[in-house]
Write a structure and sequence with these properties.
- It is a single chain.
- By secondary structure, the chain is of the alpha+beta class.
- Helices cover 30% and strands 34% of the residues.
- The strands form two sheets. It has a five-stranded antiparallel β-sheet with strand order 1-2-3-7-6, with no helix packed on it. Strands 5-4-8-9-10 form a five-stranded antiparallel β-sheet.
């Protein structure tokens, strides 16, 4: 009888020890999981507080940098000139300066030629017809010109432009027109976007 009681006690003790080990094992796993969660939380917190080096440009500065400084000034300057002797026969060509467009350091003169009186292909020496006059009296020829003036079909409109360098923040430009019979001057105000003929 005593032996049976001791066996029962041993079984109960072993069972309690097994439950105890199971409980400790489960508790240790839970504790390890908590520790891992805490470490992960700290890691994510550090990553969240350490922002990358991203620089946002100031809106006002960006607008100033990309601000469109161009100015377009419409005009109605019309004159007549003889075509170049490069192509014969020569003919009277009607020239219209439709507008000028100024940018930071260049100005474009937009021109239309009408070859109504021509019977064949004609040409114009446009860089010599329209030039720019500096304040010291120096005549500046265009740095770039359309190739359309080299061969113009008869009885048609031909458009192109002349480009001139200007100083940054230049306020006015003086255009000189030599049509072969006389010279005229036109002053363009780039701020007010107006122009007028200047009598010399």
């Amino acid at each position: 009888m005593e032996k049976n009681n001791s066996n029962v006690f041993i079984y109960i003790l072993l069972l309690c020890m097994a439950f105890g080990f199971a409980y400790l094992y489960q508790h240790s796993n839970s504790l390890e999981l908590r520790i891992n969660n805490i470490e992960l939380s700290k890691q994510y917190k550090n990553e969240a507080t350490t922002t990358p080096d991203i620089r946002f440009s100031d809106n006002n500065q960006s607008k100033e940098d990309v601000e469109d400084t161009s100015a377009n000034i419409p005009s109605a300057i019309i004159f007549e000139t003889k075509s170049s002797p490069i192509l014969s026969p020569q003919a009277s060509i009607i020239i219209t300066i439709e507008s000028i467009t100024s940018k930071t350091d260049v100005i474009d003169i937009n021109i239309k030629a009408f070859t109504a009186k021509a019977s064949s292909y004609t040409a114009l020496e446009m860089p010599s017809l329209v030039t720019m006059l500096q304040s010291d009296g120096t005549i500046i020829k265009s740095t770039s010109t359309s190739s359309a003036w080299k061969s113009m079909p008869p009885k048609s409109f031909v458009t192109g432009n002349l480009s001139f360098p200007i100083q940054k923040n230049q306020k006015t430009v003086m255009i000189r027109i030599d049509n072969g019979t006389g010279i005229t001057f036109y002053s363009f105000d780039l701020e007010k976007k107006t122009y007028k003929e200047v009598v010399q």
